[in-house]
Amino acid sequence: MTGGRIALTAIAAVTVLWMLPLIRLVTLSLEGDGMGNYVDVVQSEGLLRYLGNSALVTGVTVVLVLVFASAGAFAFSKLRFRGRNVIYAILLTGLMIPVAAILVPLSEIQKAFGLYNTYPGLILPYTALALPFALILLRGAYDALPDQLLEAAVVDGASTFRAFVRVLLPLTSPTLVMVGIWTFLNSWNEFLLALLFMSAPDMRTVTVVPASFQLAFFVDVPKIFAALVLIQLPVVLLYAALQKKFESGLTAGAVK
Questions:
Q1: Are residues 5 and 120 both part of a single domain?
Q2: Which residues form the ABC transmembrane type-1 domain (predicted)?
C-alpha cells in the first residue's frame, strides 16, 4: 500500500470515527415517535421566543467582537504606542482563565449593575470572553499585510482611521468571516452563563430547550436529542454557506 493510500485510509477512518457521535445523536432523536419528536420540540412552548433571544444575543455579540477585535488588532499590529506589548499580553490572559473561575465575580457584577435577565447581561461577558482569541487571529492577519499599504494611504492624504477602514480592513475579510463564525458558534451554544443569568422564562436562550424535557421523575431522551439537532441547524447552515471563507481565514496570516 502506497503512502497516499495509507493517508487516505487514515483520513477516512478519522472521519468515520468523528461522525459516529453525530450519527448516534440523530438516531437517538428518532427513537420512539420518530419525526414526532421533532414536531413536539418545534411546538414546545416558548421555542420561538428562545430562538429570538439567542439570535439577538449572538448577533450583537458577533458584531461587537468583530468591531473591537478588528480595531484592536489593527492598533497592536500597525500602530506604535507605549505599553503596546504589555497591554496585548494582559488581554491575552483571558485565554487562560476558565469561565468557572470567574462565575462568582461575574455574578456580583451582574447583581451590582442590574444585568440579571437582560440582554447586556449575556452580550457583555460573551464579547469579553471571545475577544482574546479574536485578537490573536486578526492581529496575525494584519501582521501579514505590508506596512507600506498603510504608509501609502497616509501619504495620499487618508487619515489613519480611513486607511484602516478603506484599505486594510477589507483585506482581512477571510479572517473576519472565520472569527464571526467562531464567535457565533460559541455564543449560540453557550449554556452555563445563559442558565445562570437568564432565569426569567421570557429571557431564556435556545440552549435551555433540551433541559425542558427533563422532568423530576422522567427524562424524555429522544426529544432532548431532537432539540440538540435542531439547535445545531443554524450553525451547520452558516458554516455550509461560508465554508470557503472560513477555511481561508484559518490560514490567513500564517505567512508574511
A1: no
A2: 51-242
Tens digit of pLDDT for each residue in 31-61? Answer: 878 888 888 888 887 888 999 999 999 999 9
Q: Are residues 223 and 102 in the same domain?
A: yes
| Residue 165 grid cell | 477602514
Amino acid identity of residue 57, one-letter, is V
Cell of 115: 444585568
| Residue 132 and residue 15 in one domain | no
Residue 246 has which C-alpha cell?
472560513
Residue 256, in any domain of the structure: no
State the number of CA atoms in the 13 A half-sphere of 91 facing the CB: 21
Q: What are 123-173's pLDDT values in tens digits? A: 999 999 999 999 999 999 999 999 898 889 888 888 889 999 999 999 999
What residue type is 6 in one-letter code? I
d(C-alpha 76, C-alpha 45), whole Å: 47
